[in-house]
Amino acid sequence: MFELKAKEKLILLLPGGCSNGIPQFRRVAVRGTFLVRTDALPDHPDRVQEHSEILLPGPVLPVPGSRIIRNGRELEIGSIRFCRDLDGNIVGCRCIVK
Question: What total number of domains does the chain contain?
Answer without folding.
Answer: 1
